[in-house]
Amino acid sequence: MVEHWGLELLYAFGRMFLNPLLYWALILLMIAGARRLKRERTNFGVKIFDYFNEINGSFWFALLFGLLLSILTIVFGFVLGPEVIIVLAIVTILLSITGSFQFLSPAYTLGCTFFICLLLPILPLQSMTTLLQVGEPLSTKQFTIITILIGLFMIAESLLIYRAKMNHVYPAVTLGERGIWLGEQQLKRLAVIPFLMFIPANELTNVGPILPYFQLGEDAYYIVIVPFIMGAQILTRYGLAMDAKQLLAKQKLYLSLVVLGLGIASYFYSLLSFLAIVLALIGTEWIMYCNRLRNQYEAAYFGPVNEGVKVLGTIPKSRAAELEILPGEIITKVNGIKVADSQQFYKALQQSGAFFKLDVLDKNNEVRFIQSAFYAEDHHGLGILFSEAPFGERHKERYEQLSQL
C-alpha cells in the first residue's frame, strides 16, 4: 500500500511539469524583474534588487502550505474535474498576461474559474467544451471544494503579504500634480504553491491509456500536483509599505475566514458557495479600492519636509543598509551642516572626507547620530535613495547648466 501511494505521488510530481502554470510563473518573474530593473535604473541610475527578488523567501512557505493543503485533500477526498484545472490555468494566464501581479489574488483566479465552470455546460462553444473534457455539469460538491480552496488560498495570500520583508518593497518616484517629484513604495510578491488534487479517471477518456491511475473503492482517480500561482501587488504613497501591509493583510485574513466559513457551510446548503465567491470578489476589490483612494487623496508621505530630506529607501548591502538607515527617517544634518534637499546632502557628504556624521530624525521624532568611515568603493550617496527627479533628468539638467557656462 505504501509503495503504491509512493509510486502514485511520483507520477503526480511528474504531471506537475505538464502544467503550463509552472512555466508561466517563470515567465512572469522574468517580465517583472526586467521591468523593475528598468524602472530602478531610470529612477535612481543603479540596480537595487536581484532579478528574481519577487519570489525570494517564499519557497519554504509555499512548500509547507502546499503540503498542509495536500493532507486536507487526502483526508477529505477533494476531487475536481479536469476542466477546473484547465480553466484555472487559462484564467491565471489571462489575468496576469500584462506581467502585473494585481489580479493574481485567489479571489480573482479561483473566483473567475468558479463562474466559468458554472457556465461551461450552457456555453455554445462545442469545440471548447470538448477540449476541456466537459460532460455533465460539475457537482455541487466540486463547487464547494473550489470555494473552500479560495478561502484557504486567501489565508495564504494574507500570510504572504504579512511575511513580506523590507527587501520585498521597491521604491520609485512619480511626478505629483503640482510638478513635485514624490516617492512611492510597491510591495510585490509571488508564490507558486504546489498542492495535490484527485481527478476522476473516467473523465479523461482521451488520455486514459497514457496516465496511470489507481482505484479508491469503486472509483478510479488520477493524482496530480497543481502549481497554483498566487501574487500580491500593493502600491503606497500615503505611508510606509511595511505599515500598510499589516492593515491589508489583516483585512484579507478576516475576509478569507468568512469565505472559508461559507465554503464549509455550502456543503450543507449549496447556494452559500455562490455567496462566498461573490463576497470574496467584492471584498478583495473593496480592500484594493480603499488603498487606491488613500493613495489618491491622502498627503504624500515621501514628499518635501520642512527641515532635512526624507529617506525613500536604501540599496541592499550598501553603507546605508549596514548603518540601518530606514525609509521614512529624515536626515537633517551632514557633519553639522543643515541640508534641505538631496543635492545639499550629496554636496555636504562629498566634503566630509574619510569620516561623516549624520543627524537622523526617526519615525518617533527622536534624533540619533550616525558616524562612520567613508570608503572609496561606497556609493556616492551611501546607497540612500531620495524622492528626487529621475536619474536621467538630473543628469540632463546638469548637462544643460554646464553648457550655459
What is the topological layout?
Elements: H1 2-16, H2 20-44, H3 59-76, H4 82-95, H5 106-119, H6 126-131, H7 140-162, E1 169-175, E2 181-200, E3 214-216, E4 219-236, H8 241-265, H9 271-297, E5 309-314, H10 319-322, E6 330-334, E7 337-338, H11 342-350, E8 355-361, E9 367-373, E10 384-386, H12 391-403
Antiparallel strand pairs: 1-2, 2-4, 3-4, 5-6, 5-10, 6-7, 6-8, 8-9
Quick summary of this structure?
The protein has 405 residues and is α+β, with helices and mostly antiparallel strands. The chain is built from twelve helices and ten strands. The protein has helices spanning 2-16, 20-44, 59-76, 82-95, 106-119, 126-131, 140-162, 241-265, 271-297, 319-322, 342-350, 391-403; strands spanning 169-175, 181-200, 214-216, 219-236, 309-314, 330-334, 337-338, 355-361, 367-373, 384-386.
Description:
The structure is a single chain. The longest helix is centred in the last third of the chain and has 27 residues, at 271-297. The chain has 405 residues and is α+β, with helices and mostly antiparallel strands. Helices cover 48% and strands 19% of the residues. The strands form two sheets. Strands 5, 6, 7, 8, 9 and 10 form a six-stranded antiparallel sheet that branches. It has a four-stranded antiparallel sheet with strand order 1-2-4-3, sandwiched between helices. It has two domains: 2-297, no CATH class; 309-386, PDZ domain (Pdz3 Domain). The chain has helices spanning 2-16, 20-44, 59-76, 82-95, 106-119, 126-131, 140-162, 241-265, 271-297, 319-322, 342-350, 391-403; strands at residues 169-175, 181-200, 214-216, 219-236, 309-314, 330-334, 337-338, 355-361, 367-373, 384-386. The chain is elongated, with a radius of gyration of 26 Å.
